[in-house]
Amino acid sequence: MNKFLFAAGAALIAIGTYGPPVSAQNVKLTTLGSHTGEMCGRDRAMLFEDPDGTTLLFDAGRTVAGGDDPRLPKKLNVILVSSVHGDHQGDKRIAKVGAGTCKKPKTNVKTIPNSNSVEIAAKTGAKIVSGGQMGAYLKARLVNAGVDPKAAKKQAKRLRPGGSAKFGGVTVAAISTEHSNGISPSFILDKDLAKALKKSGLTAYAGPDTGFVLKFSNGLVVYLSADTGHVSDMDTIVRRYYGAELAIMNMGDRNTMGPKEAAWAAIELIKAKAVIPTHANEASTKGGKVVAGTKVDRFIKAVKGRIPYHIPLSGKTFEFDGDAKCVRGC
Description:
Helices cover 26% and strands 20% of the residues. With 330 residues, the chain is α/β, with parallel strands linked by helices. The strands form four sheets. Strands 8-7-4-3-2-1-17-18 form an eight-stranded mixed beta sheet. The longest helix has 14 residues, at 2-15.
């Protein structure tokens, strides 16, 4: 009888009766790109889901089809905006997944002066989190999008380096970057000011870009580099203070780190346990396979055999445990 009870108890534990199943303890990460199964030229957006159900959308950009995009969760809690540049906050967007080509997605739905990120926040009620001077800027656009001013004030959250905020089971910290962050005149609500800025070849100041560190309830720590060059904070703050394990590295080159620079940062500065390249600004895959000679191909060659890497194909969901090990969708 005792043997029977022991076996039955072991079986119940295995199926999760005495605790959540293993998958319930994983963080889910899904790229929301322009073409399902590919890594394309304008892909920026990543959706995270904590084991407790908290959801965060990072840099909606141009490849999320607004607040009604069926790939978004029923309840979106947080939208992270790293930059006011059009490809990050979203000066335009796709009408649906698969429009245009992977190299040149069809982003014909205009979202200025509000931005795709703001319109998604207005539609879903998600908190919208940014650094620098972007908080006040985003609040004004939420109001312009129809959100009540008092609600917009609560919805737009400012988070600067050294600070953190908790949303559900996820702690979000802001990280310094090395990158420009000027607001294009096309986003300016005052038409006369917009015209004057454009005529003078100027952009409006919005403070620096912001990278993020996300600590999930299962212990996983994720670094979102955003647009940046090398910064010593990758070693001192991201690695030594926050203990980042999974690094998501922008590597488009010229305006950010390139593939070799991003690989070196992930290996030598952050000492990540796993890495995901993003923001490549080109059609990186064809039929779900990395195209030879692309930036992603060069990135892989730089990290292969040193740390595990994962290619963020749109619509594919990875699951990571608390040690940054990919356990599903790998």
